[in-house]
Amino acid sequence: MLPLLLDQPVANWDLPPDQPYREKQIRTWVLQRFVSTYDEMTDLSLPLRTSLASRFRLRAAEPVTIQGSEDTTRKFLWKLGDGSFIESVLIPATPGKEGNRSTRLTLCVSSQVGCAYGCRFCASGIDGWRRNLTAAEIIGQVLEASRIAGRRPDNLVFMGMGEPLANLSNLLPALDLLISPANLGMGARHVTISTSGLAPQIEELAYHPLQFRLALSLHAASDAIRDKIMPVNKRFPLDRLLEACDVFVRAKKKQIFFEYILLAGINDSPEQATLLAQHARRLFAKVNLIPYNKVEG
């Protein structure tokens, strides 16, 4: 199987040394015009297109199924080059107070094939963790969804399959390409990275120069309950986790989000609500309450 073009350093593209502008042309075709074949790169010479096609795959993911329609949430099942499957979800903005339809789109992106963290309410980890996605496979979801939608999404949220902070070595290079004005040109403030609670990686992100947002999948406001539904809490209990979030907030000067799935009889007691409010007040966090959808398996 050929390697993916966007996973290779430009030096490996073997472009004509007297034509440095070719790199920009290729990046424009791939990251701004969302082409799916080298033949569409009409301002490249045929020998160069042939050379690239013989050495590098262009498409990281291909659609298997698309559920939904242009006016509703669309769920994509992608097939990767090795036969693995991942999912992305394209979500239109909620209509405004006047009922007018917004044109803004948010894409929920996967970062791994499967997940190793075993949250009790999440389907992503049912079959365990298989592997990390490469930078090109992360970007590929955005490019394929953009091609289908006819334009790039306005916001990216890394809340799909996998734990994004367990794949920082590929996530950060992907973000560099997605956010760079010379490439896809997403604004960093329109990118949100979710985590189940990897405290050291949250602190690492705090000092990364890109100004993306952080969402913490909290889902319980005490260690006693969080230990039962999120095994990661045994490695990084709430005191340690909230300390890391405090580092992020102080360094980035950005509001963070607490994601909180309501599990009847488990995390929805008045005591949990009081603790949740205390945690949110401490960090000036916004709380997103999420209804639970039962997971089979």
CATH topology of the largest domain: TIM Barrel
Based on CA inertia axes, which overall geometry fits? Answer: elongated
* Widest beta sheet: strand line-up: 1-2-3-4-7-8-9-10-11
Category by helix and strand content: alpha/beta
Poorly predicted regions are: none
Query: Portion of residues in helices?
Result: 25-40%
Could you tell me the radius of gyration in angstroms?
Answer: 20 Å
Question: Mind telling me which CATH architecture of the largest domain this is?
Answer: Alpha-Beta Barrel
CATH class membership of the largest domain: Alpha Beta
**Total count of domains:** 2
Which oligomeric form is depicted? single chain
* Helix and strand sequence: HHEEEEEEHEHEHEHHEHE
How much beta, percentage-wise? 15-25%
Give the helix tally.
8
Structure keywords:
20% strand; 31% helix; TIM Barrel; alpha/beta; two-stranded antiparallel sheet; nine-stranded mixed sheet; 297 residues; 2 domains
Description:
It is a single chain. By secondary structure, the protein is of the alpha/beta class. It has two domains: 5-55, no CATH class; 61-291, TIM Barrel (Alpha-Beta Barrel), CATH 3.20.20.70. Helices cover 31% and strands 20% of the residues. The protein contains eight helices and eleven strands. The strands form two sheets. It has a nine-stranded mixed β-sheet, covered by helices on one side. A two-stranded antiparallel sheet has the order 5-6. Strand 1 and strand 2 (74-80) form a beta hairpin. The mean pLDDT is 94.
